[in-house]
Design brief:
Distance between the termini: 29 Å
Radius of gyration: 25 Å
Oligomer: single chain
Number of strands: 2
Number of helices: 7
Shape: elongated
Number of domains: 1
Strand content: under 5%
C-alpha cells in the first residue's frame, strides 16, 4: 500500500484486487468451517504454549505405548497440532495487516476531517458577506449541530438501503475477527 503525506494513493483497481484476494483466501480457509460465535469462543478450551507442548508429548507417548482413547483420534490430534503450527503465524501476520489497515483508515478519517473543518472555517468566514454561500452552508451546519444523532440516522438508513443485518458475516469479516485473536 502506498501512502504520501498521510493520503492513501492505492488505486481502486489495486484495492479491488487486494480485497478479492483476501475474500478468496477467506473462502478457501473457511470452506466447511462454521465461524464461532462469541459464546463458543469463550467456552472453547485454549491450547496455550504449555498445553501445546503437553499435547505433542501425549501424542508421542500414546504412539509409543500403543494407547488410544474413544473419541480422541491420535491422527486428529496430530492434524490439529499441525494446523495450529501452520496457521498461528498467519494469524499474527493478518493481525499486523489489520493494524495497518485500521491505522490507514483512522489516519485518512483524521486527515479528511482536519482538512474539511479548516475549509469549513474559511467558508463560514466568506458566508458572512455572501448570503448564497450562507444558505448553501446551512445543511452542513445542521449536520454538525448533533453529529451523533445524524450519524446514527445515516448508519440506519445505509443499513436499510443495502439490506444488511446485524447477523450477517462475510468470510472477510470472519478472517478479520480471527485475526484479532492471537493463538497462544
Amino acid at each position: 500500500m502506498k501512502s504520501t503525506n498521510n493520503v492513501l494513493t492505492l488505486s481502486d483497481q489495486e484495492l479491488a484486487s487486494f480485497s478479492a484476494q483476501i475474500e478468496h483466501i477467506a473462502t478457501i480457509l473457511g470452506e466447511g468451517f462454521e465461524p464461532l460465535d462469541a459464546k463458543q469462543t469463550r467456552r472453547m478450551p485454549k491450547l496455550f504454549a504449555r498445553r501445546s507442548t503437553a499435547a505433542a508429548e501425549i501424542v508421542k507417548l500414546a504412539g509409543t505405548y500403543g494407547i488410544s482413547a474413544p473419541g480422541a483420534s491420535i491422527a486428529d490430534i496430530k492434524a490439529n497440532l499441525a494446523a495450529v503450527d501452520r496457521l498461528g503465524p498467519l494469524v499474527t501476520r493478518v493481525g499486523g495487516l489489520l493494524k495497518v489497515l485500521t491505522d490507514l483508515v483512522l489516519t485518512s478519517q483524521s486527515g479528511a476531517w482536519t482538512g474539511a473543518s479548516t475549509v469549513y472555517g474559511v467558508l463560514q468566514g466568506n458566508a458572512k458577506s455572501n448570503p448564497v454561500l450562507k444558505r448553501d452552508l446551512s445543511p452542513v451546519r445542521d449536520q454538525l449541530r448533533n453529529p451523533r444523532k445524524k450519524a446514527a440516522e445515516q448508519d440506519s438508513q445505509t443499513a436499510n438501503a443495502t439490506g444488511t443485518t446485524a447477523g450477517t458475516t462475510t468470510a472477510t469479516q470472519s478472517i478479520a475477527t480471527a485475526a484479532s485473536k492471537s493463538p497462544t
